[in-house]
User: Fold this.
Amino acid sequence: MGNALFLTVAIFGLLQSPAMQQESEIAALRKSLGIPAAVKITAARMTQLPGERPLKVYIDAGGDASAAREAYDYIQALNAKQDDQYGTIEVVAGAAAASLWLVQYEVPGTRRKEAGTSNSTATDPARGSGQAENITRAEVRGYILVSKPEGLEILSRYKKEVTLGDRHRELRAAFSKLLKEQAKSEIQ
Assistant:
């Protein structure tokens, strides 16, 4: 009986359409951000950053201070370069004031403890390696969204397995990649 139930669940999982998966992913994003169902969230047809200058960016890392700090520091480094390619990027405190949202959240129910070594583990000078400890891992999802009059459009998204307590550069890396792709497409 247990095997039949497992097989049924596995087959249903395989038959789940991409549209259903996308709907559940958007529902989870909506819940994480506290966005009402009336606000449309769709995939962008074109990966195009807003043209406004200064570009106003809202960062919501779902309580992950490391991810938020990495994204913020990256933006400040870009601003320090005075790079005309991107112009000034202003980090704003509220989503309503932003034209671009950098979002990352931990997927509920994915935390698990494992024996292993994390990057933040103290190094044992005698052995030259990290000390084994129980670490907690979880799945995070990240999005770069552009605010449009008709709702939000997803420019970029990712799903990663992370070790909680380590530095998280995934949101920063996604934003950096998007900026580089945008710069390449403007050259062509």
